[in-house]
Amino acid sequence: MLTNKQEIIRQVNEVIARLKDRTNKRPFTADFAEVIIEDGISGEEDERIRELIRPAKEIKARQPYDPVREKLNRMKQMVGETYKNVLFTGGYRERLFYKQAVFMADFEDDYEGAAQFQMYFPNYQMMSYEQLRTYFTWRSRVRRGDICQTDLSYVFLYIYELINDIGVSDGEDGLNKLIHIWKAYKKYTNRLDKYMAVWIRDYYVLNKCRTTFDELLQREPLLQKYYTVSTDRYTMDYYSRISVYNIKKSIFYTPENEKMLNECFNHIIKKLNELLGKVDRKFNDLIFDRSSQFTWRPFANAIFYMRPGHHPRNTKLVELSEEMIFRYKNGRWTYCRSGIYHANGRYILEYVFRRMEQLLRRAEKFRYKLTASDKKIDKGLLDGLLPGIGSKGFLEAIDKAIKEYYVNSKRTVIRVDESNLERIREKALITQEKLIVPEDEFNENIIISRRNAPEQEGAREESFPSEDILPPELVAEVMVEATREPIISGADANRDVWRDFAGSLEPVELTALRNILEGASAKNMHEFAKAGGYMLEVLLDGINQKALDFTGDTILEFTDKIEVYDEYIETLRKAVECEK
What we know:
Layout: H1 2-20, H2 46-53, H3 56-61, H4 67-76, H5 78-86, H6 92-103, H7 129-143, H8 152-163, H9 171-185, H10 193-206, H11 213-219, H12 221-224, H13 236-240, H14 255-276, H15 283-287, E1 293-295, E2 316-321, E3 324-329, E4 332-336, H16 343-363, H17 379-385, H18 390-410, E5 412-416, H19 421-430, H20 432-435, E6 446-450, E7 462-464, H21 472-479, H22 497-504, H23 507-517, H24 522-531, H25 536-551, E8 556-558, E9 562-564, H26 569-578
Helix pairs in contact: 1-2, 5-6, 9-10, 14-16, 14-18, 16-18, 17-18, 22-25, 22-26, 23-26
């Protein structure tokens, strides 16, 4: 009895030693039987245990031929040659997986069993006979369109095959199959989400797909949770979240003005991009930092074999968006994270928003004025980035775009049916004398054109241009740098909204504002707020909100330090003094 147990232990230890021996030229090439050793083995079980530890080939010789088992054994035996080829080069697991996956690419099964399988980074080599048959049977059903629930490790194994282009005809097909398994399996679990959103992006970058990434996002709402569709990207809403000044919190941003503000901002960005295109720049080059590049390793947290086809012969640039730029150059892939904002970019956005709102407020005769200052913008940096344009040309282009939008938005266009054109001409002769009036009496452009007119002889368009509809003082202000004015002037000055604002402040808010105006540091203000039972950020937001309600603008900014806008400092000092 004792001898038998010692023999068992000795033989098992020999197997373990061979597994550890790296000098073995062909490790893992033999078939192995599964050995289970339990405590309390009886003498009657000795012979059964001896049978289990005999070489698998002796057991196999007495079994009927099984073509499926033979196929799976041949797949597992690939480990020897692959191990030898990559022993000193790395990537053993990935290359072995890919080689075995290609070997089993067209295999189908109809196994009736259902073996459980739980494993990190699942791969064929570590799976038992029953697990392999369970997986390939499930995969066969998936390929026929029947995606049923199974252990998640089987699902990940299938996804590993897809990202390695196993069972796909081309990049478009692989992309669709990745999305299909993700969408279909969401009814069972959400655990695929954090992996699939990134892996689908990586697959798109490495493979040729007919669908653009934007088209893919618009087609697949599931991806829109992780990536922004271009129609929603770089709009006023997007930029306002980056800007120091959030225009959406302004009292001028009303439901009535929302459309005008959005359209005007889009027009500004369009015109700036046209201007910057002359020096091979885009507006976002001034906002985002594109200098940081990182080595990109696709399909992190997956088993993926990077094949020679994934290394283009020439430089390759894949720009999924302004914030996702992948580049292959000099033998390596890099990833540019341009979602990092320049501090100067935030100040540029602040100026664009405030300047647009300033001029539109005046054009619409809004009761409260607003000022815009370009002092925070690093003009030297702009001059270097925009040769031939410079900061001066850049700022002038903003004013010009605002004026152009407003003039066009107020222009009235009347389209006349062609059948009535002759009648209109006859009436025009009668009223011709009335139409010839001094130019300054025109308040809008009237454009008369025929509707649905094909190009033919006699077809024409009549227009009656007039002077700009903007008041002369606004036109002059738009075309040149406007003089900065206090937010309240003229008739509104009698109301003294600044005093009203100061009077609305709680004692702790009023004291905080006085301290800030006297030059208190952010550290001192943190201590002040804490002593009063406040968070500094909440305290300052409350002050800004009240300023917005009474004056139409915020008055201070809090980053690593607290700054009061220069144009309001003296006005605020007078207002808080009155509250003493």
